[in-house]
Amino acid sequence: MTSGAFDDLDDYLALPRVSGLAVSADGSRVVTTIAELNTAKTEFISAVWELDPAGVAPARRLTRGAKGESAPVFTADGDLLFTSVRPTEDDDKPPAALWTLPAAGGEATQLAELPGGIGSVRAARAASVVVIGAPLLPSADTLDEERRLRKLRKDNKISAILHAGYPVRHWDKDLGPEETHLFRVAADGALTDLTRRPGQALGDTDFVVSPDGTFAVTSWRVPGPRAALRSVLMRVDLQTGERAVLAEDPVADLEHPAISPDSTAVAFTRETVSTPELAPRITLCHLSLTSGEWAELATGWDRWPASVSWSPDGSVLLVTADDNGRHPVFAISLDGEVRQLTVDDFSYSDVVAAPGGFVYALRTSYAAPPHPVRIDPSGEVTALPCIELPTLPGELTEIVAAADGTPVRSWLVLPSTDEPAPLLLWIHGGPLGSWNVWSWRWNPWLMAARGYAVLLPDPALSTGYGQQFIQRGWGAWGGPPYEDLMAAVDAAVADPRIDAGRTAAMGGSFGGYMANWVAGHTDRFAAIVTHASLWALDQFGPTTDGAYYWAREMTPAMAQANSPHRFVGNITTPMLVIHGDKDYRVPIGEALRLWYELLTESGLPAADDGTTAHRFLYFPSENHWVLSPQHAKIWYQVVTTFLAEHVLGEKLQLPETLG
């Protein structure tokens, strides 16, 4: 077992990271990707590794590209496909291409390429059919024209984009001018465009290929009133490219399609369009391709399905959903009977069913980073040999508080110390989410290694506690969510292992919003860290990348009532503001305004000579999350230094890399 990985940031960043899972149609082969830090410590490079389905032999590395590989998938014949960026003498920064590693062995070879690269890859389970998702410029009718236009823009250093619709940005990406298309890939690598003139309908939506290889089903975005988008299910014929709407609902988004093993039905999720008065609800649906009729399943199940797949015999749907701080796998029959398949404290993803009743998945929790497992028909879970799981510098437990009669549960990380520990309240983002998976970016064990206890509460709006728990905080962020957080803190500091006199709060995105709200409504914390945070809701609403979605929850009156900027005069707590310039979900204007108003209007303003207890950590090249390892390291260094000064009374040295 790895030891001491949380004592040193370099050791922590060097821990391998597992993501994704692919299983061959016969269940005999399982692969995943493992990302490791490069020698310069500036980038994570992923490779495809083969796992032993029996859970005995160690994992075996299959690929060794200098820039890494991703998106592995098995063909019906057992060949392994993946995308890879492999520099050549003529091009040191080529786009990602599609590669194949034959089942019979040998070297990987390039199968297909496109000037804009290749993103997603899907293969039929019972036919020799492969489909990829890749971008094309809208005015390019041929691949030669595509190459010419891309070279023209590159040579002339053109980045301008002319928009005729909404949205124009997504998370950290500028949308356009390219559009995502679906292509069928022939055995010789020839490509057939299946979705002519898609506009922005595909975007980064998911698609699936029928097991018999005759059609694909994708979530297809269509424009609506007031610059909104909604998702319908689109069928795409893989021979002719003919497409037709399979299912649509004017008051809901239909997403996450999964095609039955006999190619006669589609399961999917339905998310209702929210209103300022009513939170969205996500349900599981089933569509018969024979009759064209579809209906909701398990309507009495008060959880939100997050992923959907089929058992090999088509009798059961395997669904994951947040549930009381976990994310189990549920087996749901076509008549709506719900059975929980996993009953441990983990969260599951990348669920793939295999012959013989076996299920493979990745699982994670705050006790362990993602790692592959096999779920037997009996429900027994076996970890497959892959990576060493790190030894944790403390104890993970949970507590339940009561806020206005409503139970509010939290994970509580306690450090390995005999003395009462200072407490960090960490507030999750979303807000429709839950603290239930390992986070490399917000990792409480790094703080536990420095002596802090970390409280990870799920307040109102959190998922996994039923629809009413979400509804409690809908459109009222400064009400029940704040009250739940304070109740959780009260319960934590009642523990004799916690030092109630030394506390701090921090959060990112919605968690950053709540950190700002907390700062304006209580002085109980010695320091507050606010990352990628919402500050002035009237400003945020129209400038976020999906303004139409925001408007479904907050009317102007609600936004005004719940905006933290109105309470800046009450802030007397030192704050560390963190933001990336490439954050389009919470635009940089939120941080700029917050910083200026902290210095000029807060209860702890800058002195006349410009000195201030507040700090602003700005990343010009980072997005909502701060992903590059060198910047993630600085993030933690600055956060721990800031907290040490104000919570522990210690003066630590800032990293010299800040200059």
Mind explaining what this structure looks like?
The chain contains eleven helices and 38 strands. By secondary structure, it is of the alpha+beta class. The strands form nine sheets. It has an eight-stranded mixed beta sheet, with helices on both faces. It has a four-stranded antiparallel beta sheet with strand order 1-2-3-4, with no helix packed on it. Strands 5-6-7-8 form a four-stranded antiparallel beta sheet, with no helix packed on it. The longest helix has 20 residues. The relative contact order is 0.08.
Topology diagram in text:
Layout: H1 9-13, E1 17-23, E2 30-37, E3 44-51, E4 60-61, E5 69-74, E6 80-84, E7 97-101, E8 109-112, E9 121-123, E10 130-136, H2 143-155, E11 169-170, E12 173-174, E13 179-185, E14 191-193, E15 207-209, E16 215-223, E17 229-237, E18 243-247, E19 252-259, E20 265-272, E21 282-288, E22 294-297, E23 305-310, E24 316-321, E25 329-333, E26 338-340, E27 347-353, E28 359-365, E29 368-375, E30 381-383, E31 394-403, E32 406-415, E33 421-427, H3 444-448, E34 453-457, H4 467-473, H5 480-493, E35 498-508, H6 510-519, E36 527-531, H7 537-543, H8 547-551, H9 556-561, E37 575-580, H10 589-601, E38 615-619, H11 629-648
Parallel strand pairs: 33-34, 33-35, 35-36, 36-37, 37-38
Antiparallel strand pairs: 1-2, 2-3, 3-4, 5-6, 6-7, 7-8, 9-10, 10-13, 11-12, 13-14, 15-16, 16-17, 17-18, 19-20, 20-21, 21-22, 23-24, 24-25, 25-26, 27-28, 28-29, 29-30, 31-32, 32-34
